[in-house]
Amino acid sequence: MANQLLLGIASIGDLLLKNKITTMESGKPLEGILLKIPEYQRPYKWTAKNANLLLDDIENAMMDNKEVYRVGTLILHHDLREGTYNIVDGQQRTITFALLLHSLGCQKIDFLKQRVSLNSYSVHNVRNNLRSFERRIDKMKKDTDDREKIRLRDYIETQCELIVVITDDLSQAFQFFDSQNARGKALYPHDLLKAYHLREMKDVGIAETEHIVRMWEDINQRDLALLFNDYLYRLKEWIKGNRAWKLNEQNIDMFKGLSKKDKYPYARFYKGAFAFADSINHSQIPFVTGIQWVNPFQIDAPIIAGKPFFEYAKHYYDVLADIQNNDKYEGYLINDNEIIETLDLRKYKNGVGNRITRLMLDAAILLYADRFCPAIPGNDDLDYLDQFVVYAFIWAYSMRAQYRNVGWLVAQNFILGVSQKEVVNSFNIYKVIAEADSPRALLNSLADRVMPIDDHRIQAIKENSEEQDPNTKVYQNYLHYFDQYAFWRKS
Asked: Given 25, 194, 322, 419, which is the most exposed site by the fewest CB atoms within 10 A?
């Protein structure tokens, strides 16, 4: 088999107990199917609820006397060097079937002998799902002796089938995975981006590919989804003056970036800029000269497809984490900031309006850091950043102070500067940041734009704005900082 896409059908029993595909297109079986979970696979995340729903579906199919119960598609990459069949798609269901067969008394399952990822999700879910199955099987034995157990095991082994796709081309396997999932159940957009950019890594070795994807999978996937949807996607749209609602399959093209085949002048410019920064960072020049790491990314610039995409995601994940961590001794950007201390109070993290407003502030700081902060900022850089945080805070929380209820419609209008005329500080700060040539130019522009709010405009709770926790010295009301920095005109 060389660069072919082979199709077959495998019963669960043949696949997991006999290591073979039941029937290929030729009508013959394919022996020696040594299934392997590659390093780049995501953790095993099926919970007991998912596992039991699968068992419910199987039992219902059995009770309905379905002769064949198709349970999904399995995409395999045949690693000719190792002689193994790596699971590209179908891992969750395959592991679950193996655990189910084990609970039914099948002890010789080679697939279960391999080491499961030490990721906490995988370890917990494997153990928990197996226990859940064993409890159900034990109850079944008590109710009907072994009759129903034997019937269920036989049905799973012989009547439950998977459609199997096999290729020895890894990029082709990921391409098929991408197209399958685009037509099937919805995935996180960043999952589809992962598949796309892996296909662009044809010239990257298997070991390096596995390392890159392991780095990707080590990141909390929910946080990664929020990074792309709540921050990177929205910033790209807001900088251009567009409304930003939700990242999905229809608009993820903005994260597919420039590939090797793109030869337009603008593409060559951005690829050249990335190549220059990358070559500097991977040379001895920083060590010899003492210069810092050169940032090869900018939020409002095109992404370079393939390996750089994964480095891009990790870079902005780390920068955002630094911004959102106000610890005095961790990170370089936001450290022991008194405004952020107040905004980190539980009461300002609850509620849709509070969460949207904080997102607007963090996004503004992220864009500022991306544009103006070196990897290791100096004292001057941090001084400019502190001044910017004050303006960005007043801008974002001017919206919160002027509206009793804040949702995304109110927020988008405020951001794009189309709020009602009497609403103070409604303008697109992201566009202002992106168009500024220097921190000083930006601060001068914001000094002209960010205005004080008259007392009668403030809809937020004004009582106790001077209240301070005696133990932490943290002010309990964000309006204190409007007063402190002279952005609150009291009547």
From this structure: 25
Question: Tokens representing 285?
Answer: 């020049």
- Which token pair is 273? 């800029």
Q: How far is it, in rounded angstroms, from Cα 280 to Cα 256?
A: 24
Q: Measured between alpha carbons, how far is 321 from 13 in angstroms, rounded to an integer?
A: 46
Q: C-alpha dihedral over 73, 79, 83, 87, to 10 degrees?
A: -30
Q: How far is CA 463 from CA 320, 477, 480, in A?
A: 33, 9, 10
Tokens of 420: 């009602």
> Does the pLDDT of residue 9 top 90, yes or no?
yes
pLDDT at position 341 over 90: yes
Best CA proximity match to 29, nearest among 43, 18, 16: 18
Burial readout 226-253 (b: 16 or more C-beta within 10 A, e: otherwise): bbbbbbbbbbbbbbeeeebeebeeeebe
pLDDT at 402: 95
Torsion 130-132-136-139 (CA) sign? positive
Write out the two tokens for 336.
Answer: 């022991």
- Determine which helix (DSSP H) or strand (DSSP E) holds 72, and give its type and residue range: strand 69-79
The single-letter code of the amino acid at 66 is: K
Please check the confidence at residue 1 and state whether its pLDDT lies above 50.
no
Distance CA 467, CA 153 (A): 67
Model confidence pLDDT, tens digit, residues 413-435? 999 999 888 899 999 999 999 99
Tokens of 204: 């990257």
Query: How many CA atoms does the CB half-sphere of 280 hold within 13 Å?
Result: 14
Phi, psi of 163, deg, nearest 5: -80, 130
Q: CB neighbours (10 Å) of residue 372?
A: 19
pLDDT tens, residue by residue, 90-104: 999 999 999 999 999
Q: Which pLDDT value is given to residue 121?
A: 75
CA 491, CA 489: separation in Å to the nearest integer? 6
371 close to 430: Cβ distance less than 8 angstroms: no
Token pair of 69, please? Answer: 């119960």
- Phi then psi for residue 319, to 5 deg, are -65, -45
Predicted TM-score (pTM) of this structure: 0.69
| Helices and strands counted in the chain (H then E) | 20, 8
